[in-house]
Backbone:
């Protein structure tokens, strides 16, 4: 009787888990292949053109209604700042930041603009357990602050160290980052604020595919000016923001160790294992239990028989 | 498609259309404007009073312009195709550099040329600053054009 | 607990009825059969409580500060190190040390090893409280803890590893509560209710294995989202979840060895005959299991290095630190466990367990904080963050002690009055 109940439990559990596994697999499969939008937009950042005027930072600050900075935007002393020996980074009050680099082989400084790179297959999006992030067909990676719990996994996952957390807030401590001006501009066919403000056209907005062609064109036409690499074409599975530089990218603060595949790929090993555990574990361990129970019962019977035998012998 | 929302350059365009012809040295002084007022980006900066004459005396026309009127191309890259092209009729920046870069129009690029024409604001800054940075001429934003009230506010400049 | 001397033979409460046959009142059960005055006086005499008062005296204002002024008030609020001690220790450290529940549940209920039965409830309690306090740490760390249920019901991101962790920890918490309810029912004099739990105990145990395998592994897999940030020696994208799962096995066993030792040593008045008499053998048995797990862990750690071909890293400074962690956190416990089991020395096994527990926490802190951003600067947690972490651990200790003193965890509940 006992065995029967176990079997039934086993069957129920097995079926339940199988159903769960199918459900889970369907769900995970869906977001494993994040839809790529061939017509999405991006920005080509030509660092050989940037003069570090910080007009983009000022424009972003005004557009996003961020608090006034401690130092005015035309104060260049800021480039020397940075905590813990690293350069300035994005935080709750700065969605984009310009940093100055002085590579030894050229006689003038280079400036690197950082902001969300709006990945083709965003790690932040795939790591978010409340599905707060969206990749829009226009190319922007936006988030929904109304569901953000503040777990900060996206900050762990972003290989570019972009999402920032509003640590100073008690009531709305949540993730903030560059949204590509999606709500205020992109949706209304306007240029992002930083792009519009750039006097040097170091920021070029357009279809990503076309920007790559233009970037190649620039490299081909002026081989002395550019290194032969478009940063962001493949990094982390490709980003909407692309960069051209006149020195090797690792000399101007770019992480050149970022794999050329989406960050999610390194998590897939585990995700693929989940349905297996869900389906194999219940029958496996229920089987172990049946074996153990049977052995225990056999042992008991044997002992009883021995005792009876002994009794008879006496 | 994406539209650029910069209120641009009526005067500037006019200037480059009005003073395109500089055929001979004799006509030079008469033909070249002494001062040009560039009033792009009026939103944040005051107009630029560009001393065109001084620049024209210091440099060749081709230092800044791709071509002059009535002559053929000089740039090697252009010559590949335009060796036998007729003399150009128009020297104004804005006749080719429009308000927005060609990256913004919907057309797919054909071939490798004329696919990366920068917008007018970019062209002017790249041209002026490109030279200023090399020659040690003034490079700061407010050395050419001062802030307007809006610019002062945008850049959070403290009033003294 | 010097109150429980031979003169008070009827104490402590370990059954439904007093010696004279009258039932214990609820207050008696809560106050361990002492009068309120006696109870209070023994609370004040206990020096451990003095220490706790000191910890809470500073810690409670800090908690208030955290909720009224935001996380920046008690931590460095670093955007580069999003996860600090609350998660590095509280979540990633507490959860593996709480694997005891599913391990002993499996051993006793599934494999029929009744000889481990006397420690099963302690293992379950250790598991339940560990998980519960991991959630408490999470509530302190989350930006908006009041949205804790969002991933469950409001906005679901099912492809995320953390989604899996959230659901599994929540489900597994319920499973563990269900597994421990019999102890509560006995204490509340409602033995009949146990019947329902007993019926589903096998299902609960199997559910426990599945959920534990997955979320212990998932905690490791969370770090595979940062393949460029964590030092390669501490991150193997292929093996990370197996490393975390395997180390949780000996982590959980070691934690039960430690906690059963502490209880038998400092609360011997509470231990039942069965528990006390079998603890020696059980500890050796757990030590044996742990030694197998430590050995497996060591092997797959090496396999991971070979798989990713990271041998050259071992010659760097980081490699030295890695080898130190392996030596202290893995090899020494392995040797001690093996020697202790072979020579039948419980003391050696307990030392091994203590070192293994430290090794696990060290490993998790390395992955989450120290070797995270290994190419950037090093984050040193704010003293308030450290103090808050200790405060929450002190709370864990108090709840643990409260339950062990009262519910039939390490003793058998006596339904009848005890014979004098």
Residues:
């Amino acid at each position: 009787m006992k065995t029967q109940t176990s079997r039934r439990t086993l069957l129920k559990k097995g079926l339940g888990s199988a159903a769960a596994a199918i459900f889970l697999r369907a769900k995970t499969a869906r977001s494993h292949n994040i839809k790529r939008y061939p017509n999405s937009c991006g920005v080509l950042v030509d660092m050989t053109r940037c003069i570090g005027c910080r007009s983009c930072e000022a424009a972003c600050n005004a557009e996003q209604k961020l608090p006034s900075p401690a130092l005015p935007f035309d104060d260049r002393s800021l480039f020397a700042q940075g905590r813990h020996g690293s350069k300035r980074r994005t935080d709750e009050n700065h969605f984009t930041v310009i940093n100055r680099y002085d590579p030894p082989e050229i006689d003038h400084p280079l400036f690197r603009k950082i902001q969300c790179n709006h990945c083709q297959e965003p790690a932040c999006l795939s790591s978010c357990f409340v599905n707060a992030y969206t990749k829009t067909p226009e190319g922007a990676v936006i988030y929904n602050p109304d569901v953000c719990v503040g777990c900060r996994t996206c900050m762990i996952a972003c290989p570019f160290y972009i999402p920032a957390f509003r640590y100073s807030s008690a009531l709305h401590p949540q993730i903030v980052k560059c949204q590509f001006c999606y709500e205020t501009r992109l949706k209304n066919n306007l240029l992002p604020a930083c792009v519009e403000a750039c006097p040097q056209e170091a920021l070029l907005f357009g279809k990503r595919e076309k920007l790559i062609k233009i970037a190649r064109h620039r490299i081909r036409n002026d081989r002395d000016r550019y290194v032969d690499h478009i940063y962001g074409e493949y990094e982390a599975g490709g980003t909407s923001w692309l960069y051209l530089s006149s020195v090797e990218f690792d000399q101007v603060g770019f992480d050149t160790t970022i794999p050329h595949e989406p960050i999610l790929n390194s998590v897939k090993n585990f995700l693929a294992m989940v349905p297996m555990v869900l389906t194999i574990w219940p029958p496996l361990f229920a089987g172990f239990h049946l074996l153990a129970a049977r052995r225990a019962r056999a042992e008991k019977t044997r002992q009883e028989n021995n005792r009876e035998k002994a009794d008879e012998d006496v | 498609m994406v539209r650029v929302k910069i209120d641009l350059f009526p005067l500037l365009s006019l200037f480059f259309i009005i003073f395109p012809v500089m055929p001979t040295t004799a006509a030079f002084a008469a033909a070249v404007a002494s001062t040009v007022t560039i009033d792009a980006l009026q939103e944040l900066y005051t107009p630029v009073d560009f001393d065109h004459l001084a620049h024209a005396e210091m440099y060749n026309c081709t230092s800044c312009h791709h071509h002059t009127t009535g002559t053929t191309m000089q740039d090697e890259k252009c010559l590949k195709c335009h060796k036998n092209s007729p003399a150009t009729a128009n020297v104004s920046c804005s006749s080719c550099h429009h308000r927005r870069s060609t990256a913004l129009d919907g057309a797919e690029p054909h071939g490798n040329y004329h696919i990366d024409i920068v917008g007018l604001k970019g062209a002017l800054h790249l041209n002026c600053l490109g030279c200023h940075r090399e020659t040690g001429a003034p490079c700061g934003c407010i050395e050419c054009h001062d802030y307007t009230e809006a610019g002062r506010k945008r850049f959070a400049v403290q009033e003294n | 607990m010097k109150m429980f001397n031979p003169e008070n033979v009827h104490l402590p409460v370990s059954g439904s009825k007093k010696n004279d046959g009258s039932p214990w009142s609820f207050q008696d059960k809560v106050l361990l059969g002492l009068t309120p005055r006696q109870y209070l006086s023994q609370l004040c005499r206990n020096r451990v409580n003095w220490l706790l008062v000191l910890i809470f005296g500073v810690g409670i204002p800090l908690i208030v500060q955290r909720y009224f002024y935001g996380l920046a008030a008690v931590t460095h609020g670093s955007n580069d190190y999003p996860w600090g001690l609350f998660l590095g220790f509280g979540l990633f450290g507490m959860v593996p040390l709480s694997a005891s529940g599913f391990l002993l549940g499996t051993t006793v209920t599934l494999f029929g090893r009744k000889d481990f039965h006397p420690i099963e409830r302690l293992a379950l309690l250790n598991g339940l409280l560990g998980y519960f306090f991991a959630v408490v740490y999470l509530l302190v760390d989350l930006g908006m803890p009041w949205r804790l249920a969002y991933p469950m019901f409001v906005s679901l991101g099912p492809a995320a590893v953390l989604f899996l962790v959230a659901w599994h920890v929540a489900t597994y918490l319920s499973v563990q509560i269900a597994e421990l309810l019999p102890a509560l029912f006995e204490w509340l004099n409602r033995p009949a209710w146990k019947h329902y739990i007993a019926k589903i105990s096998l299902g609960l145990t199997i559910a426990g294995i599945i959920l534990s395998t997955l979320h212990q592994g998932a905690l490791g897999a969370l770090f595979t989202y940062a393949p460029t940030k964590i030092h390669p020696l501490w991150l193997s994208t292929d093996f990370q979840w197996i490393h975390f799962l395997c180390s949780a096995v000996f982590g959980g066993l070691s934690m039960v060895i430690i906690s059963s030792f502490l209880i038998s040593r400092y609360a011997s008045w509470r231990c039942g005959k069965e528990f006390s008499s079998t603890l020696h053998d059980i500890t050796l048995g757990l030590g044996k299991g742990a030694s197998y797990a430590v050995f497996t862990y060591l092997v797959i750690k090496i396999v991971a290095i070979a798989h990713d071909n990271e041998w050259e890293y071992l010659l760097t400074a980081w490699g030295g630190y890695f080898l130190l962690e392996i030596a202290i956190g893995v090899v020494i416990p392995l040797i001690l466990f093996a020697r202790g089991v072979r020579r039948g020395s419980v003391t050696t096994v307990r030392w091994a367990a203590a070192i293994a527990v430290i090794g696990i926490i060290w490993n998790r802190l390395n992955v989450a904080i120290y070797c995270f951003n290994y190419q950037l600067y090093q984050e040193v947690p704010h003293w308030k963050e450290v103090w808050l972490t200790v405060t929450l651990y002190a709370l864990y200790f108090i709840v643990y002690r409260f339950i062990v003193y009262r519910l039939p965890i390490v003793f058998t509940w006596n339904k009848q009055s005890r014979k004098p």
The longest strand of chain A covers residues 41-46. Chain A touches chain C through 74 residues (CB under 8 Å).
